[in-house]
Design brief:
The chain is rod-shaped, with a radius of gyration of 51 Å. It is 40% helix and 15% strand. By secondary structure, it is α/β, with parallel strands linked by helices. It has 4 domains: 228 residues, Response regulator (Rossmann fold, 3-Layer(aba) Sandwich); 183 residues, Rossmann fold (3-Layer(aba) Sandwich), CATH 3.40.50; 50 residues, no CATH class; 246 residues, Up-down Bundle (Rhopdopsin 7-helix transmembrane proteins), CATH 1.20.1070.10. Helix 19 runs antiparallel to helix 20. The strands form 8 sheets. The protein has an 8-stranded mixed sheet with strand order 10-9-11-12-13-16-17-18, with helices on both faces. The chain has a 6-stranded mixed sheet with strand order 1-5-2-6-7-8, with helices on both faces. Strands 25-27-26 form a 3-stranded mixed sheet.
Length: 834
């Protein structure tokens, strides 16, 4: 089918709004200049049928305004629409046509005031908008673009541009919000290889890693035309393989035309890879679900569940009725409807070209609502809504200029208004459109309308439904998404898709970086002792507070229990009973010795020292009770010092008994010098002297760094131990060391005297008692240091009781045996004979 007429549509009016659409794709051919460019005959064309709605939205908006007496009551709006054909030279030609006198293509020449173009709306693609801006900027004609803002070397060139779509930076932030909301940290990116695609990649490459999002892959695509598909098949297969084989289920696709995206899902692609799993496609605001006629049979199920950003829009009442009642083929001035009709319904508008393969004649009775949604939608799309609002923006600016004549009389010649004069009114423009949406430009001449987030639901018959599941509100800087309203791709079984490099680290684990991998790829490491992670994917485990400890799974802290050696618990009660039992045994022994104090065996072993030793042992057993129950200031202050002094008295008594025994056998000569040392004075001197040294050590301890009640949070993982802090560990071990020193001397002296005659000799029994005593306290030190909490106290109590019991049993039990069970041996004569 050959065409020789440039697609245009002119409706005259007092003020004209120009329009550049992108509906017809024409293969670029060399011009031989044998005829006027406007009369050039070119071959087969393709129609992006859906974009015809953009022109219809402009036509409908002008119709509404002309019927509304509240806006421009004395002015009739007209329009003049051209197609860009997706080519730069045709775009330039169309703009020059708009700026020339009607039907006279003479640049820079206008005859009269007829059909003055006050503003131009277009275009859908940034490259086309840039071509337009190059010309319109010279004439200062306002340009309303509903594409991405074209990137210019000199940003001052864009001052005539008004962007109907919000700034792309907000869209990038919205994409980031979606990824963070669903926890998609491992994403793929496919972007068109052009300047806006470069800008998009720079933006997200800076923004996403700051929010811990990594890129599984980044692929660039070239523009692919139908006649070049065979040449491009290799890299199409590569992109398809990369995207489908990647474990990234969320893939961002950035382009201005989804028809290129659909080439990735030709049947030929699926033959090269056996991975039919779905992806969650995140599509940018420039993309609508469109199709060329040759794509009618292509499957679009891969788009099922996609999330797409669209310019915020509402249903315009009356638009569908306008589409249904308009006689599209009867309007001869409409140069777009015929080619749209023929390629959408596979028919010919007239039977004059029967040499073609199409034999069906278009009747005009075909229904637009019967077309698949990818070809045409009855509801107004986001881009069409932007065109609709752009027409109203021009109308309101014109109305403001006409309504404020006294204020702008010097600025405006009302007989010949100029397009550049509109900028003053557009700068401060704010209005509500017919459906109640407020429209306003910010200081950068960009719309602040915000974005809608749409979920595409694709049905088996290739129809689809747009479901609004969220929005990005620019003025409130808010992001909202309704997760329950989303229909995911069938491969996810309607469960929330995951898009991560690896599985989450569950509570109780933290992330551990994989060498050579992006930071989104990591292993999971179990939290060490004392630490927890209570959330998914924590970078590091956190320490439990001092009053808590990790549970078994290391995902929360359990409060520690307060503990101390209590009389109520079995261990404490056992030690109390053991101490009382030993106390009673000692008291019984003391009673026995006091009752039989006249017997030879009691008299022979120094009665006073015996009583002193037994009383000190009684106090030793009682001192052990100071270590049991909750520590307080008094018990902490005195328990170690009381134990040290009392034990020193006991050991000093043993030492005095030993020295007395030795001296008794050395003083055998009557009137000898040694006899005067054997007696009460020596015993008292030894006991008092040794005890005063220990008392002095304890006094220094209490005066400098006295013990005090304390709380131990760290020694026992699950307990808070109430204890006595010894104040100075050095002084504590000085007390123990001095006591050990006395015991060592007693042991040495008793050991040397063990072979003295047996009748009056206690040396053997003292040797055994000191051996037990030293063994207990030598084992006490490592045991004490290796235990924690209340068991340290229990070890000390046990050492006190066992060492005291050793003294009691080794020294006194043999005598009690003779006194009670062998009284016949407790005889002076028998002892003297022995």
């Amino acid at each position: 089918m050959a065409k020789s007429l440039i697609a245009r549509y002119l409706q005259p009016g007092d003020s004209i709004i120009g329009g550049i659409t992108s509906q017809i794709f024409m293969p670029e051919e060399q011009n031989d200049f044998t005829q006027h460019p406007s009369e050039q005959v070119f071959g087969d064309t393709l129609v992006l049928a859906k974009n015809y709605q953009h022109a219809l939205a402009m036509i409908y908006a002008v119709k509404e305004i002309n019927e509304n007496r509240q806006i421009l009551p004395n002015v009739t709006l007209g329009f003049h629409i051209y197609d860009s054909y997706y080519l730069a030279h045709w775009t330039y030609h169309s703009i020059m046509e708009l700026l020339s006198t009607h039907n006279r293509f003479i640049p820079n020449y206008k005859c009269g005031f007829e059909n003055k173009v006050m503003a131009v709306i277009g275009a859908l693609y940034s490259a086309t908008s840039l071509y337009m801006a190059n010309i319109l900027g010279i004439y200062k004609v306002p340009q309303f673009t509903y594409s991405s803002v074209p990137l210019m070397n000199d940003q001052s060139e864009t001052y005539t541009l008004y962007q109907m779509a919000p700034n792309e930076d907000y869209e990038h932030a919205g994409i980031l919000h979606i990824l963070l909301h669903f926890g998609w940290t491992w994403v793929g990116v496919i972007a068109k290889n052009y300047e806006n695609g470069d800008s998009f990649l720079r933006s997200i490459s800076e923004m996403f890693p700051q929010s811990h999002i990594c890129f599984a892959f980044i692929e660039r695509i070239e523009v692919v035309y139908a006649n070049e598909l065979s040449e491009m098949m290799d890299w199409l297969i590569r992109i398809y393989n990369v995207s489908m084989q990647s474990n990234a289920n969320a893939v961002i696709f950035y382009d201005e035309d989804i028809t290129i995206f659909r080439w990735l899902y030709l049947p030929e692609m699926e033959e090269n890879i056996m991975m039919p799993e779905g992806k969650v496609w995140i599509l940018t605001v420039q993309m609508e679900l469109t199709a060329y006629p040759y794509q009618k049979s292509w499957d679009i199920q891969n788009l099922h569940g996609a999330l797409a950003f669209t310019i915020h829009s509402k249903e315009v009442l009356g638009f569908q009725h306008f589409l249904q009642t308009r006689n599209h083929l009867e309007i001869k001035e409409d140069g777009f409807s015929k080619v749209f009709w023929e390629q959408s319904f596979d028919c010919l508008v007239s039977n004059q070209l029967m040499g073609t393969t199409m034999e069906k004649i278009c009747t005009g009775e075909e229904k637009l609502e019967s077309l698949p949604g990818a070809f045409f939608e009855m509801s107004m799309t986001g881009h069409s809504y932007s065109v609709y609002n752009a027409v109203y923006a021009v109308a309101h600016a014109l109305h403001a200029m006409m309504s404020n004549r006294p204020k702008v009389r010097r600025m405006v010649n009302f007989q010949d208004p100029q397009p550049w004069q509109l900028h003053h009114f557009l700068k401060h423009l704010s209005f509500n459109n017919s459906v109640g949406d407020e429209f306003v430009f910010d200081l950068n001449r960009e719309s602040v309308a915000g974005f809608d987030i749409i979920n595409w639901v694709i049905f088996p018959n290739k129809s689809f439904q747009r479901v609004k599941v969220g929005w990005v509100e620019l003025q409130a800087k808010s992001f909202t998404i309704n997760e329950d309203a989303i229909t995911w791709h069938k491969s996810f079984n309607q469960t929330l898709p995951s898009s991560m490099c690896n599985d989450n680290c569950h509570p109780g684990y933290s992330k551990k970086k994989k060498e050579g991998e992006p930071f989104c790829c990591y292993d999971c490491s179990r939290c060490p002792e004392g630490k927890i992670s209570s959330q998914m994917d924590m970078d590091d485990c956190i320490q439990c507070p001092n009053d808590g400890y990790p549970n078994k799974d290391h995902d929360f802290c359990i409060p520690k229990i307060i503990t101390y050696l209590s009389r109520e618990e079995p261990l404490g009660l056992s030690l109390v009973l053991f101490a009382l039992f030993l106390f009673l045994i000692t008291a019984l022994v003391l009673g026995i010795f006091m009752k039989h104090h006249t017997t030879p065996i009691v008299k022979a072993n120094n009665q006073n020292l015996t009583y002193t030793l037994l009383i000190s042992l009684l106090l030793c057993f009682l001192s052990a009770l100071l270590f049991i129950n909750q520590p307080d200031k008094v018990t902490c202050l005195f328990r170690q010092t009381a134990f040290g002094i009392i034990f020193s008295v006991a050991v000093s008594s043993v030492l005095a008994k030993t020295i007395t025994v030795v001296l008794a056998f050395m003083a055998t000569k009557p009137g000898g010098r040694m006899r005067k040392w054997v007696g009460r004075r020596l015993a008292i001197s030894v006991i008092l002297g040794c005890s005063f040294v220990q008392a002095g050590i304890c006094a220094v301890w209490l005066a400098t760094t006295p013990p005090f009640p304390d709380v131990d949070m760290d020694s026992v993982p699950k307990e808070i131990v109430l204890e006595c802090n010894e104040g100075s560990v050095t002084m504590f071990y000085c007390v123990l060391g001095y006591m050990g020193f006395l015991a060592l001397i007693s042991f040495t002296v008793a050991f040397l005297a063990r072979k003295l005659p047996n009748s009056f000799n206690e040396a053997k029994f003292i040797t055994f008692s000191m051996l037990v005593f030293c063994s207990v306290w030598l084992s006490f030190v490592p045991t004490y240091l290796s235990t924690k909490g209340k068991y340290m106290v229990a070890v000390e109590i046990f050492s006190i009781l066992s060492s005291s019991a050793g003294l009691l049993s080794c020294i006194f039990f043999p005598k009690c045996y003779i006194i009670l069970l062998r009284p016949e041996l407790n005889n002076r004569e028998i002892l003297r004979v022995k």
